[in-house]
Please model this.
Amino acid sequence: MEFLVRSAGRTPSPCCGKSMSVIGTRERKARESSGETIVYNIRRLGCDQCGQIHHELPDFLVPYNRYKAECIESVLSNPSTHDVPADEFTLFRWFEWFHYFVDYWANCLLSIMLRTNQDKVPLHLTSANAETALHRIGRLVGNAPRWLERIVRPIVNYNLWIQTRSAFLSDDS
Model:
């Protein structure tokens, strides 16, 4: 199965906010919670100002990850009762990835809230707090389904997403 992914509006460049032009597409595979792999045709966009290339990802895809956001979210929210068909090493990497970046993401979201003058910014969130990582993030984006998508989208759109393609390999590598 293959899908073309395209946003309805014009997307500004995350790096400089200028307009972008479509320069092509590329295939992006993602696994569903059923284990099925779906192929998405993702538009490649070039920034008209600085020439940076960006890929237009839908909300349900996490940059540099091969499973849909709902799969990762299911594992992080319900570690013992999820039904995601992934090997133990993949699950381990997801937990490591989440716990490594949760404070950074919380600070990014707080920064975005302050930049956009949003009301009710919870400034008392710190890593020293006794809450779990999920609780801290939940106070910023809510704990309803699709919370991972609500973390990823603003951070990516403000060009704050950190590339982790080669992170969390074994210490021996």
The chain has four helices and four strands. Residues 88-115 form the longest helix (28 residues).
